[in-house]
Amino acid sequence: MAKKVTSKKPLTGNSRSHALNATKRQQKPNLQVIRLEDGTKIRMSAREIRSLRKQDKQAA
Q1: Burial (0-12, 13-18, 19+ Cβ within 10 Å), 19
Q2: What is the pTM of this model?
């Protein structure tokens, strides 16, 4: 099982039809499982992974 690193949670709200009927819905974060160099697996959001890769390119 991968460790969850991010603190992101699903957004909740209403889905509205044309007749304005409201039903509950969730928007879940885009969590991905990545493997680190030492072999451990972690779950991070796609946005966080992208930010880390950008920082690595700038540092090099």
Answers
A1: exposed
A2: 0.72
Strand locations in the chain (E): 3-4, 11-16, 22-27, 31-35, 41-45
CATH of 3-59, one of 3.40.50.150, 3.30.559.10, 3.40.190.10, 2.30.170.40: 2.30.170.40
CA 42 – CA 32 distance, rounded (Å)? 8
Model confidence at 26, pLDDT cuts 50, 70, 90, reads very high
29-60 tens-digit pLDDT: 999 999 988 999 999 999 999 999 999 888 87
